[in-house]
Amino acid sequence: MSDTQVAFSDLDLPSSVLKSITELGYETPSPIQAACIPLLLNGDDVLGMAQTGTGKTAAFALPLLSRIDLKLNKPQVLVLAPTRELAVQVAEAFQAYARHIPGFHVLPIYGGQSYTLQLKQLRRGPHVVVGTPGRVMDHLDRGTLILDELKAMVLDEADEMLRMGFIDDVETIMAKTPAARQTALFSATMPEQIRRITKRYMRDPKEIKIASKTTTMENIDQRCWIVSGVNKLDALVRILETEDCGGIIIFARTKTATTEIAEKLEARGYAAAPLNGDMNQQLRERTVQRLKDAKLDILVATDVAARGLDVERVGMVINYDIPYDTEAYVHRIGRTGRAGRDGKAILFVAPRERRLLKQIEQATRQPIKQMDLPSRDMVQNKRLESFREQVTSIFNDEDMSTYRELVDQLASDTELETLDLASALLYMAQKDKPLILPPEPEPRPRRERDNDRDSRDGERGAKRERINYADLDVYRLEVGRNDGVQVKNIVGAIANEADINSRHIGDIRLFDDHSTVQLPKGMPPEVLQQLKGVFICRKKIDISLMEGEIARPAPRKPRGDFKGKGRNDRGGNDRGAPRKPRPRRDA
After folding, report:
1. Are 586 and 510 in contact (CB under 8 A)?
2. What is the rounded distance in angstroms from the CA atom of residue 408 to the CA atom of residue 414?
């Protein structure tokens, strides 16, 4: 591939798409975007080998979006993703790129979401469907997802789907799609099972290999806050109150958000202003100059508006909205730490955006430390310290004689002691920004930590918390070894469909015609009903509670060879037969 730099405008994308990506701050296509977009626009099948974080979502979404027939309200593009988080991320990217395409509709479908809601949205006729293999299979079997008009199919992170045990479902889905459809497959590695798919279901695919581009930002202290429990704006204000860093740039995703955030910060007493594409060049330059002159402390900007911005006093960048790709993140935090100076960067991450966080860590070759929000005491102490400095500065720099006389006069008129009068004046002075804050509410259980299943679910060798078996029930699944099931298939299906973190799934035992799994007590009936209809290895699991069974840890297996028909899986062979040591479970 040529090293000549190309622009998005050189890639024959429609003006509506170009307008959207310009507003999102995309400057030039990444290598995989420059290579894949022309091929996919031309109708070719593409096999892309690229690491996470190289911009591959835009590499397939932009060209396929450009070929949508808006008059046809049927699925025309199907994207398969290994996890619900990635499915939501890809769907949001499609929506962002289509912001200037009226009538466009994209639908993410995944386990754990209401069937009623999904069926209602499917009846609306989405143009693009992004889903996890299990839920897509389920809708195909029910006849609620019709792919007769499918023009293109994308397999995103195919190696991850293989590792999570979904590859058989992927092949089944591909066999049910029109033979003439276009196919794009993206994978960081190319195991034999995936290579087999490319040979069986793709037509003369053009192969693209992209090395992962990494950037070091060693002079920038990068931290992230996982959004939970506190409103983002309140969290932002807490950070602003306790960080000392001169000028600050806050990045938001949309022009509207920059204006809203800046106005709310101004209402709280901050010298803040928006910087976005709706501002003319003269106003933009004047706003930047105010920041340079310290007449303004905070700019709330979009990626486009902050292009090339270099202000020496900017000591911190806050990503109020996480960017969709790693290059945008690198450009954003590059506004601080200029010319070798130290800088700070804080990133707000919603639980379902953890995958984007991992991509950013890869791109910057730095772990991003999770931070706790400043506490009430920290904010209060900072306010008191600032107030003390302000009082001392006024006393040292201003002539107080007239005000002393005024205090004496007020004390005489009100018959108040001087200390009482000073207390009343202090109360009046701090009323808009209280020096004494109300106590923080008692912390609630952080259910988000239990329910948020990050992209490592199903990853081999992940560490697990100690399970209290008294808190588990035993369930029977009507799928077993004879159906080809493996432990990782069960983990992946339950984690995706029931939104249960794999560390809360107990022992799984495989038998010839069924399996058992230990799940938390008190499973909601609607979740169990949903799980009943789930398919594993093309067979409905029809889950049911095993009355009277008590959850216990799996017995230690003595070393030795198998004597029965069982395989080296959890709970393997006939009772009493010598067993091999149990391998680590996919979790």
Report:
1. no
2. 10
DSSP SS3 for 185: strand
Evaluate the CA torsion angle 8, 11, 16, 20 in order and state its sign.
Answer: negative
Tell me which DSSP letter residue 437 carries: P
Query: What does the alpha-carbon distance between residue 519 and residue 469 come to, in Å, rounded to a whole number?
Result: 9
Distance CA 58, CA 74 (A): 22
Do 512 and 481 meet the contact criterion of CB atoms below 8 Å apart? yes
Phi, psi for residue 518 in degrees, rounded to 5: -100, 125
| Whole-angstrom distance, CA of residue 525 vs CA of residue 531 | 10
The encoded tokens of residue 327 equal 């290059």
The domains found in the chain, sorted by start residue, are 8-210 (3.40.50.300), 220-374 (3.40.50.300), 377-429 (no CATH), 457-587 (3.30.70.330)
Contact 152, 103 (CB under 8 A): no
For residue 108, the model assigns a pLDDT of: 94
Categorize the per-residue pLDDT at 464 as very low, low, confident or very high, splitting at 50, 70 and 90.
very low
Rounded Cα gap, residues 469 and 552, in angstroms? 6
**Distance (Å, rounded) from C-alpha 474 to C-alpha 546?**
6
Residues in Cβ contact with 478 at an 8 Å cutoff, skipping those fewer than 6 apart: 513, 514, 539, 540, 541, 542
Tell me the C-alpha distance between 181 and 153, whole Å: 7
Give the range among 24-33, 257-266, 448-457 with minimum mean pLDDT.
Answer: 448-457
How much is the pLDDT for 455?
36
Residue 72 has a pLDDT of: 93
327 vs 334: CA distance, rounded Å: 10
